[in-house]
Amino acid sequence: MNFQVTVLKILVAYPDGFAVMEDLKRDMAILATSGRDWADWTRRLAARVPDLDIWSQGLVERISGGWKITSKGRAALEFMEARPAASELSQASVIEETAAAMVVATDVPPLRQPADRAKRRRERRERRREARERARANAS
């Protein structure tokens, strides 16, 4: 998930574009755990503005316990969300196909076998049992 794009999206949803830090943190946590779609979407938006820096570019300003999106920040977000031109779409599809091919071509480690899982479970139980015995011995 692209942090800076997420901050812009959260702030633009608030009245006057201002949110206190508690609200920002809460909304950020919700979006961060909302799934892969949000992360992929913010990554695509951020790719349209590779040098994005919301602070140095004046897109967001800090005001008394919170952050506020500026008009420049709103314009940048609108630019990122604008539909890409046909040439950008074809480039995006080529990039996605290349990335998919790279994933297939890379060595993927084998999945853990059920025996591994059972062994780890047994070891955990044994460690817990030993810890309980130590605790009982120390308590007496």
From TrEMBL:
Designated name of the protein: Restriction system protein Mrr-like N-terminal domain-containing protein
Species whose genome carries this gene: Bradyrhizobium vignae
Basic residues bias locations: 118-127
Region (Disordered): 107-140
Compositionally biased residues, Basic and acidic residues: 128-140
